[in-house]
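In response to the reviewer comment on reproducibility (Comment 2.3), we provide here a single inverse folding case reported in full, input and output, so that an independent group could reproduce the run without further information from us. The structure tokens appear first.
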């Protein structure tokens, strides 16, 4: 029962990223510790749950180098976006005879590495996600459209959504052009 309890406690400690050593005392009892005890200590490879045999000195060196590389590879935490808004077109703006509609977005702090912007038109993703704040809508049909932008992180998790705007697209009719020629 004590072995099971020790093992469960070991599993609870795992997220701490500390090295775990397993050794056996004179009476055959298994001992888990964060430092090697004697020459028969084995560093547990937490990822595969297989013990690896190493000397105490090697174990200490492996632990130190693992902690150092872990610190070096740690990226900065994701900062919250304070400002995220569509600058143009403006809400309730009418766009006339434009097949390409530029969309300008203001983001503070600036878009972080790995984050992308996705345009949504009438609740449907439009185009491909982009790391640029200068976006375009191509060949948007006539009528009123609700537009908003979503910021996705590198794991494609939504970070923030802009306030939706409504635009009105007016396009010249081919029929009205032909009627004026007659």
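Designed residues, in position order:
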């Amino acid at each position: 029962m004590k072995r099971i309890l020790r093992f469960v406690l070991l599993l609870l400690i795992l997220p701490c990223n500390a090295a775990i050593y397993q050794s056996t005392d004179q009476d055959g009892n298994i001992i888990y510790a964060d430092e090697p005890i004697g020459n028969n200590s084995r560093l547990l490879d937490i990822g595969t749950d297989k013990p690896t045999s190493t000397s105490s000195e090697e174990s200490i060196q492996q632990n130190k180098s693992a902690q150092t590389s872990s610190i070096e590879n740690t990226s900065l935490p994701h900062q919250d976006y304070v400002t995220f808004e569509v600058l143009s077109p403006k809400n309730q703006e009418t766009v006339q005879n434009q097949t390409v509609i530029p969309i300008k977005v203001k983001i503070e702090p600036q878009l972080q590495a790995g984050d992308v912007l996705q345009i949504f038109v009438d609740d449907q993703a439009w185009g491909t996600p982009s790391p640029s704040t200068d976006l375009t809508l191509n060949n948007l049909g006539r009528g009123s459209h609700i537009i908003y932008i979503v910021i996705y992180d590198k794991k494609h998790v939504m970070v923030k959504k802009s306030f939706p705007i409504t635009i009105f697209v007016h396009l010249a009719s081919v029929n009205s052009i032909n009627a004026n020629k007659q």
